[in-house]
Amino acid sequence: METIMVINGPNLNRLGKREPDIYGRETLSDLHERLIKFAEARGYKADCRQSNHEGDIIDWIHEAEGRSSGVILNPGAFTHYSYAIRDAIVSISVPVIEVHLSNVHARESFRHTSVTAPVTKGQIVGLGVIGYELAMLALLEGEKK
C-alpha cells in the first residue's frame, strides 16, 4: 500500500486547545484519525507525525524519499524562517504540499512569508482540516499520472 506522510510542526499538538477560533476545535488526534480513514478509503496509508523539533521534521522529510508517495507538511512557525526544512524539501524527489489551517495571508504580517512554499508542489491555506484532505487528493491525483 502506498503511503502519504503527514508532518505537523510546532504547536500543532495543541490543536483543539490553542486558539480554537483560529485553528478549530479538532485535536491533532482527531485530524490524524480523519486522514488515516480518508487515505484508507482511497487505497493508501497515511503516516501521521508531529514534532515541535526542527530536526525531527527534517529527518522525516528525508525518510519520505523512497518510502512515501508524497508529503503533506504543516511546518507551523518554521514556515517563516526554516531554511533547513526548505533545504530538506529540495533534497527529496517526492512531492510536498504545504498546508496551513488558517489563512496565514490574512493574519499578522510575519506570517505572510513562507520560505518553504516556493519549493513545494503547492500550498493550501485557510481551509481548516479540509486543506489536508485536498492536499492528499492532489498527491493521489499526481500519483495516477
Short summary:
The protein is an alpha/beta fold and 145 residues long. It has helices spanning 20-23, 28-40, 54-64, 83-90, 130-144, and strands at 3-8, 45-50, 70-74, 96-100, 122-125. The chain is globular and about 40 Å long.
Verbal overview:
The structure is a single chain. The protein is α/β, with parallel strands linked by helices and 145 residues long. It has a single domain (3-144), classed as Rossmann fold. The chain is built from five helices and five strands, in the order E-H-H-E-H-E-H-E-E-H. The protein has helices spanning 20-23, 28-40, 54-64, 83-90, 130-144, and strands at residues 3-8, 45-50, 70-74, 96-100, 122-125. The chain has a five-stranded parallel beta sheet with strand order 2-1-3-4-5, with helices on both faces. Helix 3 runs parallel beside helix 4. The two termini are 17 Å apart.
The CATH homologous superfamily corresponds to: Dehydroquinase, class II
In CATH, the topology is named: Rossmann fold
Structural class: alpha/beta
CATH A-level architecture: 3-Layer(aba) Sandwich
Number of strands: 5
Distance between the termini: 17 Å
Which CATH class applies here?
A: Alpha Beta
Q: Number of helical segments?
A: 5
Outline type: globular
| Helix and strand element order | EHHEHEHEEH
Which characteristics define this entry?
145 residues; alpha/beta; Rossmann fold; 5-stranded parallel sheet; 5 helices; globular
